[in-house]
Design a protein that fits this description.
By secondary structure, this protein is mostly beta strands. The protein has one domain. A 3-stranded mixed beta sheet has the order 1-8-9, with no helix packed on it. Strands 2-3 form a two-stranded antiparallel sheet. The chain binds iron/sulfur cluster and zinc ion (ZN). The site of iron/sulfur cluster has 14 residues, from strand 1.
Length: 100
């Protein structure tokens, strides 16, 4: 049986180092949840517009459209927590993996 604390971290955004995003505070994402893009594992929730209020706690991946990722199951992220960081000038899910 899976550990409850592990289950709680499935698809959770554990760290994001994209500090210029309005949802980012001390390398933690405070968006209500995030969406990850289609052809490329970008964080589509990234914004520099004013957001208020910033959600407390870590969000989950709401929808992931990167269907070739090994953690993608029917557009749900099943990774045991994800990391988001810069790729060039934008934010990417670094937990993205292909293959099995
Ligand atoms: S780039 Fe995405 S994961 Fe990072 S703080 Fe912004 S909304 Fe959250
Ligand atoms: Zn990228």
């Amino acid at each position: 049986m899976a550990q409850p604390e592990q289950q709680m971290e499935i698809g959770r955004v554990l760290t994001c180092t994209v500090n210029e995003c309005s949802y980012n505070k001390n390398n933690v994402c405070h968006a209500p949840d995030i969406n990850v893009g289609e052809m490329h594992p970008t964080c589509d929730t990234f914004t520099q517009e004013a957001v208020s209020p910033i959600a407390q706690g870590m969000p989950d991946v709401s929808v992931c459209n990167v269907t070739e990722c090994r953690f993608n199951l029917n557009n749900d992220c099943t990774a045991p927590g994800i990391t988001v960081a810069h790729h060039s000038e934008h934010a990417d899910c670094l937990t993205y993996r292909t293959g099995v």
